[in-house]
Amino acid sequence: MIQRVSAENPEKNAHSENRAAAGAAVDSENAEIDADLQAIIERWADLPEAVKAGIVAMVRAAGGYPKRH
Q1: Which structural domain range is residue 20 located in?
Q2: CA-CA distance, 28 to 21, in Å (whole number)?
Q3: Do 23 and 38 lie in a common domain?
Q4: Neighbours of 33 (CB within 10 A)
């Protein structure tokens, strides 16, 4: 499971090479993940391939993901 790091859960915040320090600027590298996206990330490995393909197809159709060659 991926643990989110934010000011709302400082007891779960851990300093490491892969995490921003407390009070660091928020950008795409250390922004809190949307709850719906977090659910997809946590379940991704267990989803059937057809469901994964459908999710990727919807994201691509929305113009937010480059097509693979």
Answers
A1: 1-32
A2: 15
A3: no
A4: 14
